[in-house]
């Protein structure tokens, strides 16, 4: 875990580039620093591998003050990828990727295996590419090499400063997908700088939005999209993305908790009474722990008054998790949507009137009609 | 026509003498350039690394080159006496500028992104210099070396004025004796030497460019 507490950076010329930065980069998470040009993203990132030293405050890695870690060793344990890629033009692809393992004096066999494994991981055939030189590769391929060079010595932390911004859109998308996949596979802590909001939303676990050397908002992409703290955040995210994100809220927003349910142990008569009184023709059935079992229809109940509830429960009507997207229900052909917690405890039923209202609003917005 | 046959006649009659003068010439030049590399490369690197020293070092080697060759040799004569060593020292001073300047430029020209990447992944200053910056400056150094060779071959022809040898013997001897044939017999190999050095080092320069600057 990397922690910045009240960190300030004042450059030699007196420019106050970072003002009281408080941040936490958690283990195994993909953190994206974003903001307009000159807001201090690169400066923040370079504090982490001591390419820049901070002026005051406290910066710790796993509880250890960064100023007490030897910068050369620190950097060898951290991957570093930059926008200009910075491959060594006079070295083969193999030598480029093997740079840090060589600095760390790994034995040849281990290094060779690692390089081949990494080349394969980014879809470059080792036998074809190992002995090539950087200029013999396309921009996208070069940046892949830039990324795996940073991964070669198996660092736990990887710093990436606008690594994909110079690439064509197709390579960029591919590399973003690869990065997300890689991140899942190798579970590294990644600090990623970008000025592209789409990129941030796509890949981030945590987005840190900066402006003029300050953190304006940090949180998950969902949090930023649904709950921007001020106008600047809204403007930076952009009207289109916000509207898209507003989309349909998750199931929880539509739960009708007053909808009746009944324990499977009760009698059929009791079930019929509940339905008639509540004017419902379908009744969710739960067990003694209030876990959802299925649906009993009034029609079936009236036709089989002597049967037990248990024998008539329609288990094919699936319940939705409270966090599920409403779209799933809208797309299904069901007439009722029971909603449950993660552990299938019954909460209520989707309120279809309310859903309809929201759907209407959306349609109006999209066709430009304001009400 | 008659002049050319006379010249060829003279050159073939004195071929062994001309060859040994040529060798002496080459040896002086190579000694001087070797010395210039040993001193000039570190000076160039120093200038590139310590920004404050750059103007001092560069203007110093610049001034050395601006001193007219005869004057330079005359001054050196006062300190080092007559002989080939004095010539070598003079040639060394002349070769210094292209080597120092080109090493300096070569290191300065290294793509900052490449240097930052090297530093960022954990190279020490020395590793960065030896593994990345210096190799990448070699094509520039080669260009400097080429210039240095051509200058040194030319300047070395005035060596006899301070008691040195080489092809200058024939040239100066020819001037003194008003013997055009001797003069030309010395000048032609000297010119060929310069052309040859220029040609060979030109090829080497291109090769290193391909090898060490394979970006573009
Ligand atoms: N070495 C430096 N000296 C003075 N100011 C600097 C230096 N490096 C960066 N800055 C300034 O600090 C601010 C933040 O820079 P940077 O972190 O590179 O921004 P970005 O968010 O675009 O990466 C900018 O205004 C920049 O001009
Ligand atoms: Mg930047």
TrEMBL record, chain A:
GO molecular function, one term: ATP hydrolysis activity
Residue span(s) of domain CBS: 251-311
Cellular localisation: Cell inner membrane
SUPFAM superfamilies: CBS-domain pair (SSF54631), P-loop containing nucleoside triphosphate hydrolases (SSF52540)
Any one cellular-component term (Gene Ontology): plasma membrane
Coiled-coil residue spans: none
Keyword Ubl conjugation: no
ABC transporter domain sequence ranges: 2-237
Top-level lineage group: Bacteria
Topological category with respect to the lipid bilayer: Peripheral membrane protein
EC number(s) given by UniProt: 7.6.2.9
Record keywords, A-Z: ATP-binding, CBS domain, Cell inner membrane, Cell membrane, Membrane, Nucleotide-binding, Repeat, Transport
Catalytic reactions on record: a quaternary ammonium(out) + ATP + H2O = a quaternary ammonium(in) + ADP + phosphate + H(+)
Chief location: membrane
Gene Ontology biological-process entries: amino acid transport; glycine betaine transport
Enzyme class of the recorded protein, top EC level: translocase
PANTHER family for this protein: OSMOPROTECTANT IMPORT ATP-BINDING PROTEIN OSMV
NCBIfam families tied to this protein: proV
Protein family membership: Belongs to the ABC transporter superfamily.
Assembly notes: The complex is composed of two ATP-binding proteins (OpuCA), two transmembrane proteins (OpuCB and OpuCD) and a solute-binding protein (OpuCC).
UniProt name for this protein: Quaternary amine transport ATP-binding protein
Organism: Halolactibacillus alkaliphilus
Gene name, Swiss-Prot/TrEMBL: opuCA_1
UniProtKB/TrEMBL annotation, chain B:
Span of domain ABC transmembrane type-1: 22-205
InterPro entries documented for this protein: ABC_transp_perm/SBD (IPR051204), MetI-like (IPR000515), MetI-like_sf (IPR035906)
GO cellular component: plasma membrane
Cited Pfam families: BPD_transp_1
Keywords from the named record: Amino-acid transport, Membrane, Transmembrane, Transmembrane helix, Transport
Compartments, record wording: Cell membrane
Keyword Transmembrane: yes
Main location: membrane
Family: Belongs to the binding-protein-dependent transport system permease family. CysTW subfamily.
Name assigned to this protein: ABC transmembrane type-1 domain-containing protein
